[in-house]
Specification:
The complex is a heterodimer.
Chain A: E1 4-11, H1 14-23, E2 27-28, E3 37-42, E4 46-52, H2 53-60, E5 63-64, E6 74-78, H3 82-94, E7 98-105, E8 109-115, E9 121-127, H4 129-134
Chain B: E1 4-11, H1 14-23, E2 27-28, E3 37-42, E4 47-53, H2 54-61, E5 71-72, E6 75-79, H3 83-95, E7 99-107, E8 111-117, E9 123-129
Parallel strand pairs in B: 1-4, 6-9
Antiparallel strand pairs in B: 2-3, 3-4, 7-8, 8-9
The chains are: A alpha/beta, B alpha/beta.
Chain lengths: ~140, ~140
């Protein structure tokens, strides 16, 4: 059965995108990183592959959406507490991200969203699982 | 730093999307499920893909959803263990109403894979990879 999942996102300028995500604190697996592809390590052992647009298209055989105009996916990053939500969000804004919506506060969740340099929407959230479980 | 990665995708019909993925052999985490959302679980690390009804999804992004698979913003690659599994899953995709846009084939001498679009036009790869044959940079 399925072993791993990789999320592939097209980017206009791979170097700029790598720089952007490095400023947010992410590291890249150099074994799978070259001039067409940046293999970003997220959450310990998951990978988000940033692919130069032309390279991305060889896999999808489709035109790429303008992510500033339409959104097909939200890549969500779960962090350990509320403070880290704001911390990561603020780093993203400093590095050139765009604020997408106001912070959202729900019963067991706190989240901030931003759009990266290419317009892809990222959500940073904290989920209080113990509170969620108590209420079930 | 981030401890988990989750993916949120819009779907037209949560029930139909659940039926599609179930036919491919995937399961759902019912703890996070509901009428407007289903939590697809993929892979050995229990990677979560949340399938949201389109209107709910739009509430998170304040942006439009691309029309019916005409353009694509993301590609998901699912790594499987064998070539046979690529072939078998591709057959299930076709039977469940998905569309194969790249037939199973060998890629660059170290991967074997195919590409498919799900009911909503989201694009996925199925890949078997032999890292020992991967060309070194």
């Amino acid at each position: 059965m399925a072993m791993n999942v990789y999320v592939n996102l097209p980017v206009k300028d791979l170097e700029k995108s790598k720089d952007f995500f490095s400023k947010l604190g992410f590291e890249f697996n150099q074994k799978f990183t070259d001039e067409k592809c940046g293999c970003m390590i997220v959450g310990g052992d998951n990978y988000v592959m940033l692919l130069a647009e032309e390279f991305f298209k060889t896999f999808t055989k489709k035109e790429i959406s303008d992510a500033t105009k339409t959104t097909e996916v939200i890549v969500a990053l779960e962090v350990e507490n509320r403070g880290k939500v704001d911390e990561l969000f603020n780093k993203a804004i400093e590095a050139g991200a765009t604020k997408n919506i106001e912070p959202m506060e729900e019963k067991f969740m706190y989240q901030q969203n931003f759009q990266d340099l290419d317009g892809h929407v990222w959500e940073v959230f904290y989920m209080d699982e113990s509170a969620m479980n108590r209420n079930q | 730093m981030a401890k988990e990665l989750w993916i949120n995708l819009p779907v037209k019909d949560v029930g139909k999307a659940k039926a599609f993925w179930s036919k491919l052999g995937f399961s759902f985490d019912e703890k996070h499920g509901g009428d407007e959302m289903a939590c697809l679980v993929v892979g050995e690390k229990n990677f979560n893909v949340l399938l949201f009804a389109e209107d709910t999804f739009k509430g998170f992004t304040k942006n439009k959803i691309p029309v019916g698979g005409q353009t694509t913003e993301v590609l998901f690659s699912i790594e499987v263990e064998s070539r046979e599994e690529v072939d078998e899953t591709a057959k299930k995709v076709w039977e469940a109403g998905g569309k194969i846009f790249s037939e199973p084939e060998e890629i660059q001498g170290w991967m074997y894979g195919c590409g498919f679009a799900d009911l909503d036009g989201h694009r996925w790869n199925l890949m078997q990879m032999d890292f020992s044959k991967m060309p070194q940079a």
